[in-house]
Amino acid sequence: MCGIVGYSGPGNSVGPIIEGLSRLEYRGYDSAGICLKINDELQIIKKEGKLDNLKALINEQKPFSHTGIGHTRWATHGGVTTDNAHPHGNELFAVVHNGIIENAGTLKKELQAEGFVFKSQTDSEVFLVLLTKFYKQNNNTLQSIAKAFNTITGNSAFVIIEKASDKLYCLKRSAPLVVGDNKETREAFVSSDPFALIGFAPRIYFPQDAVICESIVTDIDVKINFYELDLSPSERYKFQSNAMTMDSTTKGPYEHFMLKEIHEQPSLIEKLAAYYIKNQGRQILDSLKSYRPTGWHLTACGTAWHAGLVIKNYLEQINRQSASVDIASEFRYKNPILNKGEIGLFISQSGETADTLACQELCKENGIQSFSIVNVEGSTLFRNCDQNFLIHAGVEIGVASTKAFSLQVLTGYLMSRAMEGTLDDPSLFKEIKLLSNRIGELCSNVESIKEVASEIYNKKGFIFTGRGKYFPIALEGALKLKEIAYVHAEGYAAGELKHGPIALIDEQIVNIAIVGPELFEKTISNIEEVKARKGVIVIVGPKGSSELEHLSDYYIGLDFEGLPNLSPLYVNVALQFLAYHIASLKGTDIDKPRNLAKSVTVE
Ligand code: M6R
């Protein structure tokens, strides 16, 4: 969701804040703002639209300040306007917020009845007004922060600066927040993501929920204090040295991060396999050998949910273990049946998705173990689970998830093979190597997919179909297309079309039909049904088939040979390219599609 950065130190806060916001802009890009303490006043500069708009204002004004906070917004309460952009401030405090204040409506009415005036439609301003109200009563910032935080409900993170000092304050509930410091340069930092602090803060701290962090920079030192809400000292935080590097923060020769991330897949796949089969990761997987939970509950959102559907297939087909896969926002409210001996498996790129985190909590409360398949080491999910299976994708910047999906599925597959006890089977490494090679070939021969994209990009709607293990890929292909190309697309089980959606078919509708070597004839019959109704047929299937050539309007031929378990990943990369090139022809903002944010930290 929103990106937050704060700085206090001897230098100009503008540089690190704007650099941090640029790195986090993929998380939210409706508007951006900064508040700087200049000559003992809190000065706010903010602007609707992308961060570049704010940067232009800052370039004109060239402000200098030792203390500041910045924010890039993904709107929840209140439209996309400059007034609703963060920070929100007054003569005493300025606040940036990530999350939702659920009781904001009631509190706002009460505060307005008491005579407080609001400048925005945001829920975030309610926190500012509460803080100010309490401060006017007690003249104590820490106490007022605690009181304001105790008054609100919902999951949020706040960073606060005040007119009275150069301190940075922050706290959170079920939302990402990291505090950092650099002892040598005497600088303190806060962010919603450690990624923003790479190169700035060699030491980072992850506070737990409801811990107030207070950063104090003096002439000789920088100090971070942690308090409980009753203001007693807190030890509820985790310290970590910040070992992240910057190599993932540039696009290199690629036009978009999404394209770069698609191209990274062959080498990341091989590296992940080496890590889990031959290197340090092997020990983690070996702990699963002969593992027999009584059942698996997989939960995730979006693309990660689709990865869960593929992994369920492995657990059932390879291990013959029963597995359910739920969308996290459904699972958490359905009063799920959770029995001892079962495992909750949570799949997430960011490790910060609010609904997925809530499902993990639920499993924990019910006494069942939690495993994660996660990318971000140190994320909330990572910290809360009993066992983590990292996917080592590096930073994924494109809002449309690509490499994370492939590596989530591959990790699930390796977990399944570990339980089966076949990690040393030479055919396993061979299949993974073959997958990497095939994806590599796709990456260097994308012309035919580009041509198909140019023929169909203006069509009215897209129905992706697949059967068996390709059904989740149909769902994922459709999601990728709709999120970056803004066209209606849905994924269906091929055999299900005739039960309703076939009514949509006409010459303006494209059926992207995935045909695997399995259930070949049956899938063909499903395509015939669409063809008979004048739908445009794009087949993604085994190459060299005259039958498929004849049946389709456009044919993307792939070599499925030697990929009995991993072909869904291969097909998926072809669909990633197709979505990318359709979006590119439509001229959309591929890395920052409208209305989306990279990490969804509100429910
Ligand atoms: O960080 P997570 O994997 O938990 O995120 C889950 C979804 O929000 C995410 O996969 C989303 O659907 C992507 N935009 C899809 O490309």
Bound molecules: 5-amino-5-deoxy-1-O-phosphono-D-mannitol
CATH architecture classification name of the largest domain: 3-Layer(aba) Sandwich
Low-confidence stretches: none
Mean pLDDT, to the nearest integer, reads 94
CATH superfamily heading of the largest domain: Glucose-6-phosphate isomerase like protein, domain 1
The CATH top-level class label of the largest domain = Alpha Beta
Percentage of residues in DSSP E strands: 15-25%
Q: End-to-end span in angstroms? A: 11 Å
Here the CATH topology of the largest domain equals Rossmann fold
Which terms summarize this structure?
24 strands, Glutamine Phosphoribosylpyrophosphate, subunit 1, domain 1, 603 residues, alpha/beta, Rossmann fold, 8-stranded antiparallel β-sheet, 37% helix, binds 5-amino-5-deoxy-1-O-phosphono-D-mannitol, 6-stranded antiparallel β-sheet
Characterization of this structure:
This protein is α/β, with parallel strands linked by helices. It contains 19 helices and 24 strands. An eight-stranded antiparallel β-sheet has the order 3-2-4-1-10-9-11-14, with helices on one face. Strand 9 and strand 10 form a beta hairpin. The N and C termini lie close together (11 Å). The model has no long low-confidence stretch (mean pLDDT 94). The structure holds 5-amino-5-deoxy-1-O-phosphono-D-mannitol. The site of 5-amino-5-deoxy-1-O-phosphono-D-mannitol has 16 residues, from helix 9.
